[in-house]
Amino acid sequence: MKISFFSTKSYDREFFERANQNFGHELVFYSSKLNFETRDIIKDSPCVCVFVNDTLDQEVLTALADNGVSLIALRCAGFNNVDVRAAYELGMSVVRVPAYSPNAVAEHAVGLMLALNRKIHRSYSRVRNCNFSLQGLLGFDMAGKTAGIIGTGRIGQIVARILKQGMGMKVIAHDPKPCPECESMGVEYVDLTTLYSDSDIISLHCPLTHDTHHLINTEALSLMKDGVMIVNTSRGAVIDTCAVIEMLKSGKVGYLGLDVYEQEGDLFFEDLSDKVITDDVFERLLTFPNVLITGHQGFFTEDALRAIADTTLQNVTSCENGKPCENLVTPDMVVNK
Ligand code: NAI
Fold it and tell me: Residue 121 pLDDT > 60, yes or no?
């Protein structure tokens, strides 16, 4: 099948071309994002393959359907950027890669926690300038402290295991569907109010839905411990960024680690180092010494890219051959979107 890829980088091409030796699809790569402006590029391709910051709303999907697209292959887990109901009403199927390497994201989340706590981002620059002062680098032992995990699916449960069994933390969690593996390792499920009030570190691993949009807002932040650490590797809009900035200014939030950002679509995955950034909220975040931001790289390991390419091409092959595809995204999976 001819597959048109959007938002591609050289690493996407490399991993997909290698994986395609086992599938034999026709691959066409575009570096541009799929959105309203680019919706008419596709003329003769029944499948488009997209990533986290492509926009597939009703208008874009209608244009794709008019141009003969019948399959949307997401090369990521989250599907908040696709109007899944509209796609199905237009007769399109949507597939995704639900679990390419939950370890990759979980390990990155823990990396952010360790770096923030021990201020490794700051000591790295200091030592390179031969400044060996420890002033301002004081951290805390994570062993014995409490971590609160919001969302204990594939990624959250690995974070829980690392923090509990690897670091000796007490782990509490909130999830509408508690995970038996977490329960058996002694993770206690609590309501959100308890999680906010008892956690020294809060790590977000829930999907972005109507319910979780701005879950971390002024009200939630005010219930948290003074000096709390918040780490978000899920989706940017789970945090109300302006609210968290106010709480960073007051000291209520002591550490913030972000791999995702509400308006990341205008910034992430591009080299903008010689451009003027016009997003004042993002620029304000960069001024805090206790904020550490990475540009949506949680998924970015060799293992994950290999798995993403294999699963995406297998999804397309299954759909092309009319076989059942376990990675279909169906409208019933969309929670109040
Ligand atoms: P998953 O679907 O396995 O787990 C999500 C969990 O969140 C489920 O257990 C679900 O019950 C729970 N949940 C749903 N609504 C909730 C709510 N209101 N409060 C608390 N928990 C809730 O998903 P997975 O694979 O663990 O991924 C989690 C998120 O991580 C994805 O939705 C995606 O947005 C993000 N992600 C980020 C990546 C990165 O590179 N930074 C890469 C992959 C995923």
Answer: yes
